[in-house]
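hiii, so i know i said id send this last week but things got crazy w the move. better late than never?? heres the sequnce for the chain we talked about at the cafe, plus the structure i predicted for it. fair warning i was half asleep when i ran it
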Amino acid sequence: MIEFAARSETGNIRSNNEDNLFCNGIFKTLDRLNEPFYLSGVSQTPCIFAVFDGMGGEDCGETASLTAAETLNEHSEKILRAVLDDDANFAVNNYVTDSAKRLRDIMKAQRVRTGTTLALAVIDDDSFTAYNLGDSRIYRLCNNHLIRVTDDHTVAEDKVRLGMMTPAKAAKSRERHILTRCLGIYDDALTLAPDINGPFDVSDNRAVLICSDGLTDMLTHKELNDIATSFKSPSEIVNALTDSALANGGHDNITCIFVKFTID
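okay and structure toks below
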């Protein structure tokens, strides 16, 4: 059993929300893309949660993130069945391939360039696995410490990994927003696969945070950690995280999901 909450806000600067999300079958539909979104509840495992941060001019970003969410909804039953057969990685890769193809078809038909990040967690009875493309992130809460699970796929982070840039400089660099991997904006000949991290044992990791960079750009890691460990319920945590990001500027769309494990 898990308890979860999710929230998505446009922020203080932008007029549209290019983020979307997936909470075990629920996502922002076309008629509600720019409305404030809030959801909380409980769920049996296995289950799937994801955050998407779309990019592109005009309404292209919303189209990309919505397409990724709709495609995930279509693939969700296959992924959940695959969890039972210990083959979730294969099913998620199939979802990524299908989603990328649909985005490429949209770009060709509409003559636009667009894409979206992906941060996805597949949660089983006793573990969870993280999948990502782009700079939306997944964290795990272990011994009251929030630990980042995913690596950002950005030019700045690549330079940090190569020793060409310090993390401090990367945090302020414009290149931190230039993605090196995402869903969409790829040639047909390229094979796209997400990073896979885990599985992580839920007995050691009591919760998962999934979020877009609209949250992590506005809050330091200490602020994220303090909020995640200062409140008990996922609802309190996502509201405190989002409200703090808005208070600190809210320069981008903000989306976060907090999933807490209930261990008997």
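btw The helical segments are 60-84, 88-110, 155-161, 167-172, 213-216, 221-230, 234-247. thought thatd interest u
miss u guys!!
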